[in-house]
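Glycerol-1-phosphate dehydrogenase [NAD(P)+]
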Amino acid sequence: MDSKKIQMPREVHIGADVIDNTGSICKDLRFYDDVLVVTGPNTLKIGADKAIESLEDEDFAVDLSKINDATSKTVEKIEDKLNNISLIVGVGGGKVIDVAKMAATNAGIYFVSVPTAASHDGIASPLASIKNNKGSVSMTAQAPIGVIADTNIIRNAPFRLLSAGCADIVSNYTAIKDWQLANRLQNDSYSESAAALSLMTAKLIMKSSKSIKKGLEESARLVVKSLFSSGMAISIAGSSRPASGSEHKFSHALDKIAKKPALHGEQCGVGTIMMMSLHGGDWEVIKNALHDMNAPTNAYELGIDPDDIIEALIMAHKIRPERYTILGDRGLSRDAAKKLAIKTGVI
Ligand SMILES: NC(=O)C1=CN([C@@H]2O[C@H](COP(=O)(O)OP(=O)(O)OC[C@H]3O[C@@H](n4cnc5c(N)ncnc54)[C@H](OP(=O)(O)O)[C@@H]3O)[C@@H](O)[C@H]2O)C=CC1
Ligand SMILES: O=C(CO)COP(=O)(O)O
Ligand SMILES: [Zn+2]
């Protein structure tokens, strides 16, 4: 059998105000040289300033880069700033984390992930979703050497971000169904342990759907831990297969089509409702759980034109065509797409 590499973080810190220990955590991880902090326009004040203060207290020389998107161009711009830098600390949402992760991987240096929101399961995964002229590409990257998830920052983030993270985890249900289908029909390699971990995480979030509340530290902690374990399923699989199937293709298609796309997790959640219906599964249970978590369940709540939903459904199978899903090679016809969106109440 072929050998297999599984990359996981060395240290994971989850708790209130752990961001104030960023400097000492980086010291414990044996870093001493210059550090580049990558962040976003909103997350600079919310998280990066605190991380920088803590790093400077421990005598790190800190440089700062603000980014607005997760494109290959932005990754290159960050790489150009890496002279004498031995560590990148990414402080922000999914885009910031992906750019920091990818730039560190390309430059052969280490990366510490400091999520300011529990909105996606790339917090600790060895993948980065980077956009280029072909759309979103899931690229192999190194896993962060450390994760510092401050539950005080995360619980105070807009609740919409936490709901999106829950929906990104709920999408594991259809991702696993698609993966199993691809294994049966295309003999795609399949990992029982990665699938079991992914499903267990999705079940845990569904079970807790009514108790995830705005502003609660326990809720922030639960979702961060779940996103982390979903990321570990990705690590075990060595691909995003356990957490990304047809519902993610739909979301990636919407990112291309919609004038103002919604959050990644929100779109994936709505995609899960429809793809679960295509799989012949209980899509109403998914829809109810998303509703309980305050996540959007239809085009109106997503803020997306119903016509764009139909177009995204029709286009979805063309996104990453090598990844076989319930959408098959030909995808949905316009009539079938419309019927599906109406039946599930998405439009
Ligand atoms: N690599 C992987 O395995 C995975 C990657 N992804 C990728 O992650 C991205 C989605 O991540 P997501 O976080 O939803 O989107 P963004 O990174 O775009 O973040 C959404 C917004 O939330 C803001 N924000 C973050 N934290 C806070 C906070 N504490 N308070 C106020 N605002 C905050 C950000 O601010 P700012 O403007 O400062 O950035 C941004 O404006 C997608 O590109 C997706 O493809 C998703 C899943 C897995
Ligand atoms: O979003 C992801 C998992 O939740 C990553 O998946 P992609 O490979 O579709 O970018
Ligand atoms: Zn996702």
